[in-house]
Each structure stands twice: as structure tokens, then as C-alpha cells.
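testing teh design pipeline on a random one, pls ignore if ur not involved
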């Protein structure tokens, strides 16, 4: 079995008596990207700083390629950890040109360095700008130089803290994909911090979802998105509709029909949760909706409250006849119903999550 490039075990850190990192454990294999994803203030950067060696944890251990770099008694300095850093304010040295910025991380003879610097810049597509100064580069170009600089010492682990947040959307997508390619190619283990679910899903082999200092769920983006551990985890990725119900005989009766709740005791209140794109819409046929099906349950009628055109899709909000609550749907944008239109909604059974009530 391959040794993980990075292993974090039971890492904890408090500031002024408040625990901001709470028993965090994870590992990253060579060439893999793990995203620490979570809301602002949940402890992502603090975790990363502890791995980098610029923050001393209260407890826990960190290994790089099987070598212990931090525990209760040992604290290897940052420069000896074989870790590359790329942070949001990645600041290149303004008085050095591109070549000198990249060479900064290299050790060895000057003559050998030029070749290495050229190779690195070629890899990030910046060789033609080798003689420029940072102020002569765009934000995206600076980012690429910063990546080349971080890769120069061939780190085993690359830590990235919201490295793309200064870039506009289109450029960011390109730079993300290019960066990922270069990092995978270099075989480094990447721990990337972000509070954006879209960025995490695009970049990560594995997402570690963090909340209030703890990792609440770990898994491939597909699994985290499709089998969230609780309502909050589901809500972190999109709007969520919640339909309330009570379990009786392993079933929950709702206006959308019955939902299975195996093993849940009678009388338990549950939230049936569904993402807006997993509601189906159908036409009103003189006050009647489509026939119930096993896959989509019973239709319930609602009236369009608001419909917004978003390009590839429309967001349509309904006020439901059964209790006046609002449900949000996301449908292909060829469909943009007028406010006041009565329509019928159905819930895709295979896409809903059932959680005990009161989770968020
Ligand atoms: N040196 C410090 N002294 C005191 N409190 C700190 C210190 N560093 C961080 N904190 C606090 O610890 C908590 C976690 O901070 P951290 O920077 O790890 O959050 P984050 O998840 O990276 O958030 P963001 O997405 O906003 O960057 C915050 O409440 C922050 O105020
Ligand atoms: Mg942070």
C-alpha cells in the first residue's frame, strides 16, 4: 500500500479558549487533491497553517511522506517540511522579475537554475514572460508564476488557501483546470482550502466538509453531493426544499405521497429534503395533475410566485396549495411560466434525503 503524502491525525487548536480546529484527521495520497470545504471561520486556514508549520497545534500529529513533522514535542520548521504554499495573497516579489521569482525556491548552481526555471515556466505556459516584472502581468499570469515558484522546490505536499479568489469567473475556471493538470503531473498531494462548493467539486478527488472546527463528512464530490450526512451538509451545496412529515409504520405521509423511513420509530418528525433541480413540473389539466408514479409519487399543486431566467435554466418558485409554503424549482430555461400559473410538482424519490427534523 502506498504511504499517504500527507497525514493529519487528531489535530486540534484553540485560540483564547475557543476551539477552532477540533480533532481533524485526514490523509492525501500522491497526485490527489483534497479540498477542505466549509463556511467562513470554520477553521480551514488554521488547519492549513498548522500543516505548513506556521501555527503550532495544541495536539495532534502531522506526517509528510511518513515522516513526522509535528507532534506534542516536535515542530519541524516550515522550510524543512517539503511543503509548497500558495495563498490568496500569494504576492510575488515586486522587485524581482519572473525568472528570479521562480528561482527563489531553487537551491543549487546558478547555471543549472536557468534551465529549471525555464522548464517550470513552460509547464505553466509563462515562458514568454520570463523577463517581465510582476506589475507587467495580469492577475491570472501572476497566479501562474506563483504556481511555478511554489512547484520549484518539488514539494511533496502543496497547500493552497483560496488561491483563485482574486480572479474573475472565466479566467478562474481556466486557471483552476490548468493548475490542476500541473499539480497532478508533479505528483504532489494537494490540500486546497475553499468556501466555494463549485470550486471544491471542480478540483477535488475528495472533499472534507468542515463545520465549526470539525470534519463532518469526507468523500468524493459525487458522494458528498448526493448523500449528504445532514440537512446542513446538503444546504451547503444548493438551496434545499424541506417537506415536513411524521413517521408512522416506517412510512411518512406527505402531500407528495408516502416516503419510506425504514428503522425510524413511529412519531419521529422528519425533514424530506430535495434540491430544486429534482422536482418535476407538470401541467394543470382542468384542476387535475398527472397520475402518481412509484418513481415520482403523488403530484401536489402550486401556483407560480416568481420565475427567473438564468440562461441555461429557470428558477421557479411556487406557493403550494397544501399549506401555503414556498418550494423552489430549477428547470430548463425553455420553460419560464408566468406568475399566477397553476402547475403540479412531483418529487423524484431517488433524489430526496430524509433526515430527523430540526437539523438546521
Ligand atoms: N491568531 C488567531 N488568534 C485568535 N483567533 C484566531 C486566530 N486565527 C484564527 N482565529 C479564529 O479562528 C477561527 C477560524 O479561523 P480560520 O482562519 O481558520 O477560518 P477559515 O475557515 O479559514 O475562514 P475563511 O473562509 O473566512 O478564511 C475564526 O473564528 C478566527 O477568528
Ligand atoms: Mg481562511
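output:
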Amino acid at each position: 500500500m502506498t504511504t499517504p503524502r500527507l497525514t493529519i491525525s487528531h489535530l486540534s487548536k484553540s485560540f483564547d479558549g475557543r476551539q477552532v480546529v477540533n480533532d481533524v484527521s485526514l490523509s492525501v495520497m500522491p497526485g490527489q487533491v483534497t479540498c477542505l470545504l466549509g463556511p467562513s471561520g470554520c477553521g480551514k486556514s488554521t488547519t492549513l497553517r498548522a500543516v505548513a508549520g506556521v501555527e503550532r497545534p495544541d495536539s495532534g500529529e502531522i506526517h509528510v511522506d511518513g515522516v513526522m513533522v509535528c507532534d506534542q514535542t516536535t515542530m519541524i520548521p516550515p522550510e524543512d517540511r517539503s511543503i509548497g504554499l500558495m495563498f490568496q495573497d500569494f504576492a510575488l516579489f515586486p522587485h524581482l522579475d519572473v525568472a528570479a521569482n521562480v528561482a527563489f525556491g531553487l537551491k543549487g548552481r546558478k547555471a543549472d537554475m536557468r534551465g529549471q526555471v525555464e522548464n517550470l515556466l513552460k509547464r505553466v505556459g509563462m515562458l514568454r514572460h520570463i523577463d517581465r516584472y510582476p506589475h507587467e502581468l495580469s492577475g491570472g499570469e501572476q497566479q501562474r508564476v506563483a504556481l511555478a515558484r511554489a512547484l520549484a522546490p518539488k514539494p511533496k505536499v502543496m497547500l493552497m488557501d483560496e488561491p483563485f479568489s482574486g480572479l474573475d469567473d472565466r479566467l478562474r475556471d481556466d486557471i483552476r483546470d490548468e493548475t490542476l493538470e500541473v499539480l497532478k503531473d508533479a505528483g504532489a498531494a494537494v490540500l486546497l482550502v475553499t468556501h466555494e462548493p463549485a470550486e471544491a467539486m471542480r478540483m477535488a478527488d475528495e472533499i472534507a466538509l468542515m463545520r465549526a472546527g470539525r470534519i463532518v463528512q469526507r468523500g468524493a464530490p459525487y458522494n458528498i453531493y448526493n448523500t449528504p450526512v445532514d440537512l446542513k451538509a446538503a444546504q451547503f451545496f444548493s438551496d434545499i426544499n424541506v417537506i415536513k412529515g411524521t413517521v408512522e409504520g416506517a412510512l411518512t405521509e406527505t402531500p407528495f405521497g408516502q416516503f419510506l423511513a425504514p428503522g425510524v420509530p413511529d412519531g419521529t418528525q422528519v425533514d424530506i429534503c430535495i434540491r430544486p433541480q429534482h422536482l418535476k413540473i407538470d401541467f394543470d389539466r382542468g384542476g387535475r395533475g398527472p397520475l402518481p408514479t412509484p418513481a415520482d409519487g403523488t403530484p401536489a399543486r402550486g401556483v407560480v410566485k416568481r420565475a427567473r431566467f438564468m440562461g441555461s435554466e429557470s428558477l421557479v418558485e411556487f406557493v403550494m396549495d397544501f399549506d401555503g409554503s414556498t418550494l423552489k424549482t430549477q428547470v430548463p430555461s425553455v420553460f419560464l411560466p408566468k406568475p399566477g400559473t397553476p402547475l403540479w410538482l412531483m418529487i423524484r424519490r431517488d433524489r430526496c434525503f430524509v433526515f430527523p427534523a430540526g437539523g438546521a
